[in-house]
Amino acid sequence: MEVKELISRAKKQDSKAQMELYRTYKSYWYTICLRYNRNTFDADDCLQNALINIFSKLSQFDENRGNFKSWSSQIVVNDNLMFLRKKKQNFQSFELEDDKFVVEEVSEESSIISSENLTKLIQALPSGYRTVFNLYVMEGYSHVEISEILEISVGTSKSQLSKARKLLQHQLEVVI
Question: How far is CA 132 from CA 83, 121, 149, 170, in A?
Fold first, then answer.
């Protein structure tokens, strides 16, 4: 069934259509949650909250103003940011000692890193670095927008991104 049809039926509280939308996008949404959270428990909580918001706000979705995947992913990102704020994550700049950036295990031995392994590397970043990296690189926000969203300066946003990239680059050199 076409996504347009699923959305139309889901807006009418058709539980089968809602379940099909969930099945279609759950991996995509969960990957976003994993990128923002260091552990699966927090990612699970964020996904659950996002699902509630997606389906409760589904009547507000207008296919003439954008596509469902983008619209729903914005809700997932916002829910993750709210979750991090509630946990009182500090998005301000901070220094990182080299021994604190530890990746559990990266399983592939080829020169091409899988998306799962890249997600593990991103998860291992400190919260501020990880959040700015995700907003800038993955979601496409500008530093000005990030500074407004996270209530930090543009300079802090740029600094966090730079440090995140350096850490990821170093870790990729170790892995690959």
Answer: 15, 15, 10, 18
Fold of 3-86: Rna Polymerase Sigma Factor; Chain: A (1.10.1740)
What are the residues whose beta carbons fall under 8 Å from the beta carbon of 53, sequence distance 6 or more? 75, 79
Query: 77 in helix, strand or coil?
Result: helix
Architecture of domain 98-175: Orthogonal Bundle (1.10)
Cα dist from 121 to 20, 38, 102, 112, 164, whole Å: 31, 10, 9, 14, 10
Residue 23: Cβ-neighbour burial (10 angstroms; 0-12, 13-18, 19+): exposed
pLDDT at residue 105 tops 50: no
Tokens of 67: 């596509």
Backbone angles phi, psi at 85, to 5 degrees: -65, -45
Q: Where are the domains of the chain?
A: 3-86, 98-175
Region of 127 (left: φ > 0; alpha: ψ -120 to 50; beta: rest) is alpha
Q: What is the mean pLDDT of residues 42-48?
A: 96
Q: Which amino acid is at 175?
A: V
- Read off the pLDDT of residues 107-150 as tens digits, 9 standing for 90 and up: 444 446 788 888 889 999 998 999 999 999 999 999 999 999 99
